[in-house]
Amino acid sequence: MAGTPLDFEKPLVELENKIMELKNFGKEKGLDLGDEIATLEKKSRELKQSIFGNLTPWQRALIARHSERPTSLDYIGMVFDDFLELHGDRSFGDDAAVVGGLALFHGMPVTVVGHVRGKDTKDNIARNFGMPHPEGLRKAMRLMQQAEKFSRPVISFIDTQGAYCGIGAEERGQGEAIAHCLYVMSGLRVPVVSVVVGEGGSGGALALGVADRLLMLENAIFSVCSPEACASILWKDGTKAAAAAQSLRLTAKDLVGLQVVDELVPEPLGGAHRDPEKMGRDVKKAIMEHLEAIQGFDIETLLENRYQKYRRIGVYLGG
Amino acid sequence: MLKDLFRKPKYVTVRTETSSRDVPDTLWLKCPRCAEIIYTRELERNLKVCRKCSYHFRLTASERIAVTLDDGTFAEYDRDLSPTNPLQFPDYEQKIQAAQKETGLDEAVLVGEGTIAGQPVVIGVLDSRFIMGSMGSVVGEKVSRAFEQARDRNFPVIMFSASGGARMQEGLLSLMQMAKTSAAVNRFSQAGLLFVSVLTDPTTGGVLASYASLGDIIIAEPGALIGFTGPRVIEQTIRQKLPPDFQRAEMHLKHGFVDLVLERSQIKPTLGRILAFHSRGGDR
User: Fold this and answer.
1) Is the CB of A314 inside 8 Å of chain B's CB atoms?
2) CB of A277 within 8 Å of any CB in chain B?
3) Residue A1 has what pLDDT?
4) pLDDT in tens, A10-66
5) C-alpha span between B117 and B267 (Å, rounded)
6) Which of B86, B172, B213 is facing A179, going by the closest CB pair?
7) Would you give the end-to-end CA distance of chain A in angstroms?
8) Rounded distance, CA B90 to CA B279, Å?
9) CA distances from A81 to A64, A99, A154 (A)
10) Stated pTM of the model
11) In whole angstroms, what is the distance from residue A228 CA to residue B56 CA?
12) Which of A163, A224, A234 sits opposite B175 (nearest CB)?
């Protein structure tokens, strides 16, 4: 069991610990407890299935934010053969909450951008918990325009609670930075594949996610606002986040149903952090499939399809 | 009986002339900035700007159209689009109905065409009374169609924003309207056509972070609140009080995010000049 268990995982953790104790006890005393252990292991498998087989949206949100969950940087390491990080927006600064650069994908040069959370407290402070400032989004935008110049596909990883809200961020035009990312991505003359790997929070997430194909990991969430913010707006009570998570339809399954997300990438039982290597391989495979499917289009067809894909989103009555 | 002596006598109440006269509280208004008591008709004559301190009261979408377009030239587009509840979000229908009743509008935006100083434009105006002028599927669709219509007809676009951002009750569908409208601006722009964005109080969240920030020329009304995150949330996050001029139109002018801050009375004439700049062939 990796890291600090989430509340709903605790019965499983207790059982797994008990099995471990029993195994050690048997070894110490030279007793054969094989039958008992087998029974408990069977019970553990069933418990695992019953806990993780039917997660609520809020439980998925907690998994999406799990401190052990692989970050965009982990996926970059697992998906690409080489990665050269590039820095700065050429205007104000470099933002560690957004990482970008050149990479080789199955030998093909691509441009990679993504929000990056920290692994621990120190890392999180350096990366501002993965919440970009305008300069981070402008760096991503610059690298994507560079990709266009050199006809490299763009792969983006989405994992942020949202664009940072602070004085400097507002003064430097957070809204304008997001708007221009959307504008540029919608007309980018190269294939774009985006993967929501953790939390997709509002405009700061979407700023890297206007793509020909939008993929989402099974336990990732993508939402117009955080469940906590939604609960505090609706019920003036931030603790009702679980109910808000339900109402917002923010899971991968919901969003495939709403035809906003193109594919759900299944995770190992219990979440990506329980088997990061497998998750990395599956993400790589999914990106490959979608990139291959869109690379055949000439650029005008690709752009028309991308335009129509977003043009169709929305549900209303009348003409 | 002795008890009758202590009984309170009954008086007949006579309704006086003054107490029966109904004085509507809308006849007089108090300016929220300088506390001046203003006669409503007088305020309307002055485009809803306080004569004493120049405070700009918010305009409804129809009022904005009336003070912006040449009289009687507005023809509305896509009137039949109306919202539904795609996520089955709690209490959303009631919220829509209440807003429709209060505003007489079907949704938070009015789009259509008309003329400014005789020059044809496609115009879109958000109404902040309708669920805070928030952008859900209908607003995103109407705005996108307005840009497409303008592109087909070679018309410039003028968008007036007044919005709290993306509409929460339509979840990610609302967020995606940001991508949709930005894509529509991109296509429109590639045709070499003019888009003027006018930011009015308040323009925040997903509307600021999409088409409203993408104007070739961006104008703001004095004192308008403009920002990605609202001031209350920022104060809670950074745990400090924000200065009063923070996120106001004037701050954005100083930091280079708007071209002009214009008094309301100057907006129409300036739009007329901007349109003329973009339609001239030159004297050669």
Assistant:
1) yes
2) no
3) 43
4) 888 899 899 999 889 988 888 888 888 899 999 999 998 888 988 999 999 999 999
5) 12
6) B213
7) 53
8) 49
9) 26, 17, 15
10) 0.92
11) 34
12) A224
Shortest Cα–Cα distance, A172 to chain B (Å):
7
Residue in A with minimal Cα distance to B170: A248
Strand pairing category for B119-126 and B109-116: antiparallel
Q: Looking at CA atoms only, how far is residue A2 from chain B in angstroms?
A: 30
The answer, for A78 touching chain B at a CB cutoff of 8 Å, is no
ipTM: 0.94
Residues of B in contact with A166 (CB under 8 A): 234, 237-238
Q: What percent of chain B has pLDDT over 70?
A: 89
List CB contacts (< 8 A) between A317 and chain B: 81-84
Place of tokens 């601006």: B185
The answer to whether the CB atoms of B173 and A313 lie below 8 A apart is yes
Q: Domain residues of chain A, as ranges?
A: 7-54, 61-311
Q: Are A103 and A153 in contact (CB under 8 A)?
A: no
Domain range annotation of chain B? 59-283
Distances, alpha carbon A210 to alpha carbons A60, A306, B122, B237, B254, in Å: 23, 9, 26, 28, 31
Residue B22's identity, in one-letter code, is: D
Fold that domain B59-283 belongs to in CATH: 2-enoyl-CoA Hydratase; Chain A, domain 1 (3.90.226)
- Architecture of the structural domain at A61-311: Alpha-Beta Complex (3.90)
Between chains, do B229 and A174 touch, taking CB under 8 Å as contact? Answer: yes
